[in-house]
Every structure is written in structure tokens, then in C-alpha cells.
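Weekly puzzle thread! Below is a chain. First person to post its structure in C-alpha cell form gets bragging rights.
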Amino acid sequence: MPQPQRTALVTGSAGFIGFHLSSTLLNAGWRVIGVDAMTDYYDIALKEKRQAMLCQSRSFRAINDRIEQPGLLETLFSDHRPDAVIHLAAQAGVRYSIEAPESYVQANLIGTFRLLEAARAHPPAHLLLASTSSVYGANPDMPYAETDKADSQMSFYAATKKANEAMAHSYAHLYGLPTTMFRFFTVYGPWGRPDMALFKFTRAILSDEPIDVYNHGKMQRDFTYVDDLVAGIEKLIDVAPVRPTDGAAPPEGDSLSPVAPYRIVNIGNSDPVPLMEFIAAIEAATGRAARKNLMAMQPGDVPATWADTTLLRRLTGHIPSTSVADGVARFVEWYRDYYDL
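Winning reply:
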């Protein structure tokens, strides 16, 4: 007999990662309830195009509203009883959190609280929430492992995400909600956000405009291609944490909580790339040289990130495989096509 169709509720479904994840789940046979506020943090037309593509599937339903709206999520949980909830909606951006911190309180703190309350009232089989590599903050020891201390966040954005982790752990402990937190590492690829480096650099290089290169280019990032990231999320959906038996210690290297069905998982490429090498990949893909405006480090930023993905591999067998050269080339191809260049 055919298996009944499973339902996923994806917040931030018209966003960069949410769009790719929703597309992947729809192609895998899921019914997807997508919630997105369609805010104007960046070009709404890009979000509208992503959502329109998702709406071509009869298994997708779009809800355009803010997750912090009282009662919205509880009604959606009650009406649709999702098997999996993937919470990606957030106010993103390190530097913007310095300019407009209150938007992070509303979306990241209050919005996540509303989601946790809805999950408490109508528990899904697995609750999965996005965090960020930024929570590792000033920790100089790399690669970052999920069991490393992460108490020195350097931006308000990172602080709200660390707060989300603590909030979700408390609900997992109090109400037995199987919960996985993802720590994402510098995601890039087609349909990406215009405020991110790859988008800004590509646009500037193709327009023969200078690019701002912070810390004089002495930076490294664990650039993670969006398809690799989404594959990791999809595989983790069916690996819900189980509360350890009383007194049992989690396996070595596992971030599983000793008191809750709760786990943190890094999703990265585990291969830090120097910023200048990343720029060189854009130059190769565009066929043009970048005019570099070398600048000091920006407030709230960190010089390097590097994910230890041992736990992801152990849980799912997933190993990200897209090289920066290939991933950047695919983005530039999409960018030229989207903007008819």
C-alpha cells in the first residue's frame, strides 16, 4: 500500500533556504505548508518569484503572515497537524542587527516563542529549527564542534539565535518535543539573498563596480552550497532525537542533551575557503576581474568559520560535496539568467 502523504510546515518558505527546502520536500512527495511574512528586508520580487514557483505544486499552500502574529501558528498546527516543522523564518544579517535590533526581537525571539507554544499544544514528530555558525562567536578553536562552548556571541543576530537554542531546549525538556537545532555555515547558491557577499560581489563585478573586502581579505568562511545544506536537513528530518534514559551519558561527540530529546547539528562544508579564493571563483565564473576596496573588519564579524561535521555524517551519512568553484559558477549562471545579462 502507498504510504500516506506526510505534511511539513516550513517557516520562511519564500526565503533563500526555505524555497530550496520546500522544493526538495515537494519533489519527495511531501505536502508543504509554507509561512512567510514577505518582508522588505531585501527585494520582495525575488521572494514573490520563489513563492510563485512553489505554488505551481498542488501540494504547496502559501500563508503570507508574520510568525509572531498571535494565534497564527497555533491555528496552522491545529489545522494541518504537521509531521515535521522546519523553522527557518528569521530576521537575518549580522550587520543589520546593529542598525535595527528590534526587528530581531520580534521575528527571532517572539516568533520562535510563538512556534514553540504551537508545538507544545500540537506536537509534531520532529521540530527542527535554524541556528547559525555565528553563535560560536569569539571562540578561536576550530573546527567548531557542536559540543564546544558557545557563550561569546559578537552580534545581536547571533545572540538571538543562541537564545533560540536555549528556548527550544527548555521546551524539549519540559514537554518532550523532539527537537534538532541546525547551525548553518555561510550558505550560498542560486536564488540567494541580495545582502550576502556572493550576490553583492557578482552584481558589482558584472557592473564594473568595486567590491568592499573586509579585514583586507584576511578572512575564511566554510562556504556551504545550498543543495548540500538542504540535503542535510532532509536527511535529519527522520533522525529525531530521543531523550536519554535516566543517568545515561550521550555518545561521545554527540550534542544530544542529557535531559531532553534535543540535539544541535552543524551543517557546513567542513572546508574553510579564504575570501580571496572565493572572489577568484567569482572572477573565473564571470570572466571579469574584481576591483577590490580593502577595508577593516566590520563590527560583529568574525575572521573565520569552520564546521566539524562529524556528527552530521554519523547521523545521516551525508557529506557535502559541491566545490566552491562549481557552486559559484552555478550561482553566476542563475544570476545572468534571472537578470537577463
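Puzzle host: Confirmed. Bonus trivia for everyone else. The domain at 7-338 is CATH 3.40.50.720 (Rossmann fold).
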